[in-house]
Design brief:
- The protein is of the alpha/beta class.
- It has one domain (5-251): Aldolase class I (TIM Barrel, Alpha-Beta Barrel).
- The protein has ten helices and eight strands.
- The chain has an eight-stranded parallel beta barrel with strand order 1-2-3-4-5-6-7-8, surrounded by five helices.
Length: 252
Amino acid sequence: MNKNNIDKILRNGKGMLLAYDHGFEHGPTDFDEKSVNPEWIIKIADSGHFTGVVFQKGIASKYYDKNKHKVPLIVKMNGRTAYQKGEEPLSLSNCSVEEAVELGASAIGYTIYVGSEHEQTMIDEFAQIEKEAHDKGLAVIGWMYPRGKKIKSDTDKDTLAYAARLGLELNADAVKVKYSGDIESFKWVVKAAGKTKVFVVGGEKDADEDDIIRETKEILQAGAVGWAIGRNIWQSKDPIAVAEKIAKVLYN
């Protein structure tokens, strides 16, 4: 395994991934006339501020050209629809590693709902995908989301630390987790992840864009490498301007 796989989606050791798997997970409810079009998203992703763009395989196949687009592709390997929001969620693969390679992926992403009664099924599938992806030179990112009736809070410090640690134990190059809300508690989450890099979930759009800049500084201070961010970019009035502001904090 090449330990530098993750460097493909980092710049100066930091990264900002433009997430656009919402159409699968939520349907088009998050989109407007512009953001519903993946071609518009690609233009934002290729602006030079992002170190990766996250697509499901259908979007990647139809809109991403590995010979044309500069931004590295991250293929999201699994997903569930908004109709499957049960208390104990399960999300299984809809793409093979071979397909991801053919699409020009630099990395793959896979969600594990940590704490769900179905977590072992996802862990088993992730383990197979992780081995094959690393053998083919791809970076592996775990979307580590605490879910299920055993989870009291998905932003609790110890719950997030457990999720991040599971990513390390499963040999993920990076994990994508929620922010605990303050620097000191999130330092423990990052520490638990060890040599596995930590990206923070952007989540729903903040009313104040200054909050994103403040949180960018906080997560960096805690030791995270950056953002996996979607709605806070492409739901904004000027997505590239917002990305530029974040990038100035991230990469400098």
